[in-house]
Task: structure prediction
Amino acid sequence: MRKIIAVVLGVCVLLSGCATAPEDPYVGATAESLQNGVLAVTDASAAGDPVSALARLDELQAALLDANAKGTVEQSRFDSISAAIALVRADLEKAIAAQVEVVPEVSQETPMTDKEAKKAAEEAKKAAEEAQKEAEKQEKDNKDD
Result:
């Protein structure tokens, strides 16, 4: 989970834009929107909720695609952020897969009838009595030696 947060923080640095040039369309609402999306992913990851983090990542990617279509993010920045999103996505999917419990296989055998259950119980009782007798016999033989 820490790796995910580190990558998300890296995306945040990319989104901060460092020093944007005056002609850079990546300013104002676009930058703020994408940074808020990264924060949502980070918060969900930090809370240990990779499913929610993945949903927030989907929203972030949709916002990035929208910004790219509108021309409010340069192609190089779009490519960098997209690559970081792909890394985060892979980590989140691994985290989700690790949380999935393996469901035990259910027996396909038909349940025992009452008669079969009674017979099995009698056989188990008989086997237990024989094992007890054998244990007593071995104990007696050990004392005799």
Observations:
- The CA atoms of residues 50 and 99 lie 9 Å apart.
- Residues 114-144 form the longest helix (31 residues).
